[in-house]
Amino acid sequence: MAIQWSKKLSVGSDLIDDQHKELFRRFNDLVEACRQQKGKQKVIELLNFLDQYVISHFSDEEKLMERCGYPGRLAHGEQHRDFIGKLAELRGAMKEEGASLRIVVETNQILLEWIIHHIRTEDGAVGVHLSRQVKKSPLPY
To answer: How far apart are CA 54 and CA 75, in angstroms?
Structure first.
């Protein structure tokens, strides 16, 4: 199931929005690879990408939440750490059993859930807060 970026998902920060768009693109690449029965190779590439992506993206997002005074930033950061833990579990399972079909399916499920819930709901709340802050005092986020 491919997913599409829309303006409704914007948090109001070009940097964060661009990073989210890249995650969508990578997820859709995995979905397409699975359709072509090449998901095992693509899941390895995706997990390698995510190892670096989550470090820089979550750092950028947490800095943004700090700058704009987002009240839910601690709980939001906890969700980031939980996601990093899930990725570590996937990475560990892949080392044990290789890029199995189970790993491909699980990676798909974890990312889809993250995109649907976290980006739409949690990051969306940051976007609402940020837009209110910008209306009060325009700051470059």
So the answer is: 17
pLDDT at 138: 54
Helix (H) or strand (E) holding 11: none
User: What is the per-residue pLDDT for 134?
Assistant: 67
What is the sign, positive or negative, of the torsion defined by CA atoms of 60, 66, 68, 69? positive
Residue 129, token pair as written in the block: 């807060």
Spatial neighbors of 56 by CB under 8 A, at least 6 apart, are 19
For the chain, give the number of residues.
Answer: 141
- Contacts of residue 133, Cβ cutoff 8 Å, sequence gap at least 6: 68, 69, 139
Which residue from 60, 46, 80 is spatially nearest to 13, judged by alpha carbons?
60
Mean pLDDT by 10 residues, the chain (141 residues): 85 92 91 88 90 93 94 96 94 88 89 89 92 66 52
With 0-12 / 13-18 / 19 or more C-beta atoms within 10 angstroms meaning exposed / middle / buried, residue 39 is buried
Is residue 118 a contact partner of residue 11, using CB atoms and an 8 Å limit?
A: no
Q: How far apart are alpha carbons 64 and 42 in whole angstroms?
A: 31
Compute, in degrees rounded to 10, the torsion defined by CA atoms 93, 52, 20, 77.
80
